[in-house]
Amino acid sequence: AKKYGRNTFKLYSSDIEGLAHSDLRMENLLHQALENKEFVLYYQPQYHANTNKIHGIEALIRWNNPELGMVPPDVFIPIAEETGAIVQIGEWVIEEACRQNAEWQSKGFPATPIAVNLSLRQFYQADLQEKIKAILKRTGLGPRCLMLEITETIAMQEDIAAEILRDLKALGVRIAMDDFGTGYSSLRYLQNFSIDHIKIDKAFTDKLSTKEGRAIIATIISLGHHLDMTVVAEGVETPYQVHQLRELGCDVFQGYYYSRPLPPEDLIEQLFGK
Ligand code: C2E
Ligand code: CA
Ligand code: CA
Ligand code: CA
To answer: With a 6 A CB cut-off, is 249 part of the ligand 1 pocket?
Structure first.
């Protein structure tokens, strides 16, 4: 062990260096990504449980970098969040999603709300409301056609969060609580925040076949309905899950069973056969 001790340590420390470097490298590449137009949005439809009509479309970012390849959001969003780059990237996401949605409508496709994910830092920037207002004006999209998805982490500063949400709601946009039940859930948040939709996290949908999983989902649905919210199930992958969720009264489904996130052309084809 002693013989390899030093080498092992060397290997280990250079691994760490490598990691730090790759993070730094990613940070640098991330800085130029907006300017180089390396981000794209994919779109995933959400369907009403009973009518199978479209409820909304979630915009999900993809980073296509010439050196790194396709980087999934779970990898680069946390880095962008840390460096603050997320504020500009997030603004691009809102603008691009609104622009795309307005374009679809101008082509005669039925008006369908577009959902955009807001990160923590983005949520707490001082001029978020004005920025969104300006984007709606620039793109000509009606505020009812924009849904903002937030997570429970924004509730860390509860009073401020409630005020920001009131300002956003005043614009006429809708708010969804994403990944519900995975963070610092509090029933108080649901009461004090003006939330329109709650999204049941895939982790719960995955557990539908167990007694406990079913009980948790049934409770979230019942809670949502008592508070006049629409309940959306995420990560729906199987006919079994569709059937169970329907029986439990879930309102809207999103998941691979219906469609993966798609580039805009493919989404339109899937929705309208055009
Ligand atoms: P999320 O907001 O919870 O988005 C749902 C994720 O689940 C998406 O992953 C989607 O592709 C995936 N998904 C949907 N249906 C299924 C299914 O049936 N099975 C499985 N296995 N997965 C499914 P994606 O696109 O990789 O995004 C991951 C996360 O990255 C998102 O989770 C969201 O937190 C974040 N994200 C994505 N786009 C943005 C963005 O524009 N801004 C910010 N701040 N975060 C974003
Ligand atoms: Ca989301
Ligand atoms: Ca989610
Ligand atoms: Ca998630």
So the answer is: no
